[in-house]
Every structure is written in C-alpha cells, then in structure tokens.
Write a structure and sequence with these properties.
Blueprint lengths: L2 H6 L4 E6 L3 E6 L10 E5 L4 E4 L5 H4 L6 E7 L2 E6 L3 E5 L6 E6 L2
Antiparallel strand pairs: 1-2, 2-3, 3-4, 5-6, 6-7, 7-8
C-alpha cells in the first residue's frame, strides 16, 4: 500500500469534505505521526498538499492532531483536539487564522 493509499483509505479517514475537484481529509496518524494529519487529494486520489504547521503567531507552539473538517460559505476549517478551529487555504494547506470553539 502506498502512502497516498494509506491516507485515502476509508478505514483511516476520520472526517472528509469533498469539493468540486478535491477532497480534504482528516486522517488517523501513522507511525506515531499524528500532528498535521490533514491532507488534500485530487480526483485521482493523489496528494495535493498536507496541512502546514500552525504559525507561532497564530496558534502558539502547541501542536495536536486534528479531529474534524468543515467547509461552509467558501471557508474551510479544521478543528484540533483542544477545540481550536483553524481556517485553512484550500489551495496550499496554509493556516490563515484560529479561533477557540470550546
């Protein structure tokens, strides 16, 4: 199984959002690597990007796995286990902003 297939395997997907020509997935960690666990795939299930690390000025230095993803009114957000909601750029996986949801 290739790495791309591991991450796109339905058994490893926690949550996903399908858009016109891409699917953004929160996946289970692999080999102890549970942070930055959001991937974007094209229609052929090839990885377009992996979410970038949260910039210190936006989210501090704490890193944690993501547990959810949503896409509403043109905005994509991922949520981590601490209830922090991050807006992401769907073209490259960069973190744009953060808010606390818990």
């Amino acid at each position: 199984m290739t790495e791309t297939n591991y991450y796109y395997d339905e058994n490893n997907i926690i949550e996903k959002v399908s858009l016109e020509n891409m699917t953004i997935c929160v996946v289970k960690g692999k080999d102890g690597d549970e942070n930055d666990n959001v991937y974007c795939f094209d229609s052929d299930m090839r990885v377009i990007w992996r979410i970038k690390q949260v910039p210190t000025e936006i989210g501090g230095t704490a890193r944690s796995p993501y547990v959810g993803v949503s896409y509403t009114e043109g905005s994509c957000r991922v949520i981590d286990i601490y209830g922090r909601s991050f807006a992401i750029d769907i073209t490259n996986g960069e973190i744009l902003s953060m808010r606390i949801v818990k």
